[in-house]
Amino acid sequence: MGIELRAWHDDDAAVVLRAFQAEDMHRQAPWPMVTLKDAQGWIASWEGAGHAFAVTLDDQVVGNVAVTGIDRHLNGWVSYWTLPEARGKGVAPAAASLLAAWAFSERGLFRLELGHRVNNAASCRVAVKAGFLPEGIERARLGYDGTRYDVERHARLATD
After folding, report:
1. Which residue(s) pair with 114 in the sheet?
2. Run means of pLDDT, 10 residues per run, the chain, 160 residues
3. What CATH class does 3-114 carry?
């Protein structure tokens, strides 16, 4: 499987728009994704906010991995998503592993963290397969539509 990370391009906007229109991705978008301009704005919003990479499978963009929130302690926050048709194929764990290797070797980070709702078993599998060890539950961490969700925190160290 040819999974690679590359910079986002403006002409990837159609993929971003399609991704955020998936039912489970609506509330993950920082603003409503209705037009290609919205998706281009999402791509542009990464400038100076962290390091985001388009995930490609056989040269087709199928997802995103990013590290943000980098602090003076060399910690960073990891996020990821894939298009629905790329799920269950090992794309997200491979991409998260590639991102971790890059963050440790090229960016000099020491600790990478991520979190997922405890009812999101697929995201948990991605984290574990990518070498992120569970560290605990943050009770009622997220709130969507009047419902609070517990979040499981995972981390991967440069020394793991």
Report:
1. 154
2. 93 95 84 89 92 97 98 98 96 98 98 97 97 98 94 98
3. alpha beta
